[in-house]
Amino acid sequence: MSAAKLNQLPRTQFTNKAISEVVSMSSSKILMRIFNERKVLLAESETGQVLSEIVVQDSPRSLCMTSTHLAAATLANETIQFIQVSENTLEEDSTVNIGVNVYGIAAHRNNLVVSCVPPAVMIISKDGEVIHKLDNQLAGREVFKTPRYITTSSDGSIFVADFRKNTISRLDGSLTILQTLSGPLLNSPHGIIAINRDKLLVCNKSNNNIVEIRPSSDTMTILLEKQHGIDYPINICLCKKQKKVYVVSEKGNVMIYKLE
């Protein structure tokens, strides 16, 4: 299987504010988290037109879609804010108190998987019930230092990027560690997405590139670097329907690539 090919597309101006995260929806829409603001925006992916925005209860740290019309955001006040997403509007839904400092978030089957501070990963229900938890104490060793961004694959695997340990951990639905990916190409991994069950794209922030990882062979390939528009990437998302990859830089810019 050959490496993914990403061709740079013209930039789209979504907003004049710094963007921290982009999340793709099933249609031609995206959600955006704005740096240092309590806002989540809904925009057209093709034109960049902002259709709606919502002010959440505290600073959002990460976003995910839990279903076609429901998003979830981890907030700085130890809660998860659910947001109803229609064709052109965002509306506040319920809020769930988690009781710990939560950061990364991803949908996992009918539940959510989150990363936490102190370092931990939990699978929780949408009501906030803890189903599974993994931390250093439970593992009896240091499995995490600073787990942040999370993605899931079609086979149910959970991938957690730890930017201080320079690892990607692959876990199953019970949070058993199946594999730990590391190597000289991984340097402060941040945003992470699964293209398929055996192909990950990772924002390698400190090395200023995007790396493709294949867990089955434990191999890594650099796909995008500075000459391709990469500028200290922190977040990445894939729109499977449009075959587009969005890469967010530390400065809040968004670059778009066509997945071939």
* Strand composition percent: over 45%
CATH architecture label of the largest domain: 7 Propeller
Report the total helices: 1
Strand arrangement within the widest β-sheet reads: 1-24-23-22
CATH superfamily of the largest domain: YVTN repeat-like/Quinoprotein amine dehydrogenase
Helix-and-strand structural type = mainly beta
How many strands, what sense, and barrel or not for the largest sheet? 4 strands, antiparallel
- The total tally of domains equals 2
First and last CA, distance: 13 Å
CATH class of the largest domain: Mainly Beta
Instruction: State the helical fraction.
Output: under 10%
Textual characterization of the structure:
This protein has one helix at 136-139, and strands at residues 6-8, 19-24, 29-34, 39-44, 50-55, 60-67, 70-75, 79-85, 90-97, 101-108, 111-117, 120-124, 130-135, 147-152, 158-162, 167-171, 177-181, 189-196, 199-204, 209-214, 219-224, 233-239, 244-249, 254-259. It has 260 residues and is mostly beta strands. The protein has 2 domains: 12-97, Beta Barrel (Thrombin, subunit H); 100-248, YVTN repeat-like/Quinoprotein amine dehydrogenase (Methylamine Dehydrogenase, Chain H), CATH 2.130.10.10. The strands form 6 sheets. It has a 4-stranded antiparallel sheet with strand order 1-24-23-22, with no helix packed on it. It has a 4-stranded antiparallel sheet with strand order 2-3-4-5, with no helix packed on it. Strands 6-7-8-9 form a 4-stranded antiparallel sheet, with no helix packed on it. A hairpin with a 4-residue loop joins strand 3 and strand 4. The longest helix has 4 residues, at 136-139. The protein is globular and about 50 Å long. The two termini are 13 Å apart. 42% of the residues are buried. The model has no long low-confidence stretch (mean pLDDT 95).
